Amino acid sequence: MTAPIFRAPSSPAASPAHAYGVLRHGFASFYASPVVEDMDDWRADVAFVGVPFDAGTNDRPGARFGPAAIRDASMRYRPEELWSGWIDAEHGGRILAGVSMADVGDVNVRTVDLLENFGAITQAASMVRRNSRVQAFVGGARIPVRSIFVSTQGLSHARNAGLAQSRGDIVGFTDDDVRPASDWVARIATVMADRNADIVGGRILPEWSQPPPPWLAHRSSFHGALAIVTHSEAEQVLNPRVRPSVWGANMAFRREVFEKVGMFDVRRGVVGRKLYRGEEVDLVERAIAAGCRAVYDPSIVVWHRIGPDRMRRGYLARLYFERAEGEALVQTTAGHRTLLGVPLARYRALVQRTTQWLAAAVQRRPDTFERWLDCCAALGVVWGLGKRHFRNP
């Protein structure tokens, strides 16, 4: 008999805790949000999932008690009315007002079977994503962990906020769809010491959610767009725009780097649904120019989970367009003849790329899709420069 993926936090007749006078009745759910009893019939903006995982230890007290403790602590901060949000004392008004939340329960973690637990957590994530916009997996840790809310949207804003709150001499970065190796932190410290490095990066290996289509699996030229780095030799990074390099899913810096060159450029990087890029490349480029030493080492490993939505040609076309758009928004056009804020050379490049794509399509050449992506990137540059011109005429 297959074990269920979720362990319900209540019986069907139970309900989340509520305060009556001086007493609180019932059990604790995350922020007193409704509890999901039927996994096939629910929907919420934010879904809380407990992960009582103690990393395979033999049922010893520790991180596995995290979800229960966090549930209980969150009851102190439950909103006055369901989904009424919280008062933002710093900026005034309410935040998260009207955002619906649900407590899905706990992942049904076994005591010592690591591989089964990883599979259960992954399957739980897939199930919860079908019915919610944001998934909050809540667990515990044996080291101090802080969660920081950043009201300003944008990856660079979030990273800078984390930097401001961190205290270590070495600051590591990864992404929410990445699984670092168990020795990730140790390898970063070792490589930094052995290679006398100020910045380190490493391999980013794909963890496909399903077998990739042949056009993607056998075309390494597309792997860079999916943040895949498989280079097997260690080397110093002299040009961060050439692979192997230091990319956001797997990178670490000595704190002195930020003191020397500043933080991430908030004009760059993902913002909302916009697939802007380049914030880490820009930072590493500035650091190398300032005399810092950057090193790529394949022993520093993470696995990047790639869902089916990123295995489509449409996704790559959108990525090439928006990545170029974002880069254009921070480019300077001083000294160039422009039309509507776009240098004339950029129009010529767009015409050239379009012509090359059409020629490849007519001849049915195998590089037709690559030429289409070049066309998307050229159009993204023109669009981004034009957008900046009309924003700041």
What are the SSEs and their pairings?
Blueprint: E1 6-7, E2 18-20, E3 23-25, E4 44-50, H1 66-74, E5 86-87, E6 94-95, E7 101-107, H2 114-129, E8 132-138, H3 155-165, E9 170-173, E10 178-180, H4 184-194, E11 199-208, H5 214-217, E12 235-237, E13 251-254, H6 255-261, H7 279-289, E14 294-306, H8 313-329, E15 338-339, E16 342-343, H9 344-363, H10 368-391
Parallel strand pairs: 4-7, 4-8, 11-14
Antiparallel strand pairs: 1-7, 2-3, 5-6, 9-13, 10-14, 11-13, 12-14, 15-16
Largest sheet entry: 6 strands, mixed
Question: How many alpha or pi helices?
Answer: 10
What general outline do the C-alpha atoms trace? globular
Number of domains: 3
CATH class of the largest domain: Alpha Beta
Mean pLDDT: 86
End-to-end Cα distance, whole Å, is 67 Å
CATH architecture of the largest domain: Alpha-Beta Complex
The succession of helices and strands, N to C, reads EEEEHEEEHEHEEHEHEEHHEHEEHH
Task: Give the CATH H-level superfamily of the largest domain.
Answer: Spore Coat Polysaccharide Biosynthesis Protein SpsA, Chain A
What is the strand tally? 16
Q: What percent strand?
A: 15-25%
Low-confidence stretches: 9-15
CATH topology of the largest domain: Spore Coat Polysaccharide Biosynthesis Protein SpsA, Chain A
Structural class designation = alpha+beta
Radius of gyration: 24 Å
What helical percentage do the residues reach? 25-40%
